[in-house]
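One-letter codes give the sequence; the integers encode the fold. A sample entry reads:
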Amino acid sequence: MRDGLGQRLFGMVAGPEGPQNRARIHDTPGPRWFGEDRPIRQVHGDASMFVGGLRALLLQSLHPLAMAGVAEHSDYRGDPWGRLQRTSTFLAVTTFGPADDAQRAVDKVRGIHRRVHGVAADGRPYEASDPHLLEWVHVAEVDSFLRAHQLYGAEPLDQDGRDGYVADTARVAAALGVVDPPRTEAELRQRISDYRPELTGTPAAREAAKFLLLTPPLPLLAKPPYAILAATSVAMLPAWARLPLRLPYLPPLEATAVRVAGRTLVGGIRWALARG
């Protein structure tokens, strides 16, 4: 049962080519961008990424130009698992894979970004390759992964480890085109604060939040654990990020029942994937 559950979870996240990709990423000899002792490997290899990933998508949607690019150029409604699988493969390759494969993955993403451009609903033009938008996507993602790991990771990081994680992710961000990405936890928090005047809840962002939290295409048996995952992700968002998305804010409940349920769920995922 454990093996079967782990394989289904891994298949959902990594896709049908997951086993082959995993073997290539981990077994191919050669230098890596990050050594085995680096914090990025600890964070990105932990089951808390399931919670952090959903939180990152919600937070990223608050930038109207970033959300416009997703709404107009991403088939997240029609193929949400395909998008998840591509993202997880990119994270795995750049974190654990050979340096040449990591660079090729970055080059591929940069090529896609050059083709993503348009005009948002408010009349402003956007380009996915804009370093300013790239930085927002990056800091929202890194902040989400780090917060999830501190709350639900098997071994939360100390201050040096958290700074090291942010510095590690800066290596990937710079390769993608982010100019001077944050390299410490304090810098990360400051960058997010700097973006707050630009953030707002658009109809597209609220529609995406509704889809991600309430109506993703899932089999019946997966809906209860996914509801816990969704509640746990929302509970990690700051209050200022929830109002624009019309998400609830219930601190006492979130600090007790949601926290316990989240730890149980992430622990179960970790248990299953240890064999899957």
About this structure: The two ends are 10 Å apart (CA to CA). Residues 209 and 263 are 22 Å apart (CA to CA). The mean pLDDT is 93. The chain is about 70% helix and 0% strand.
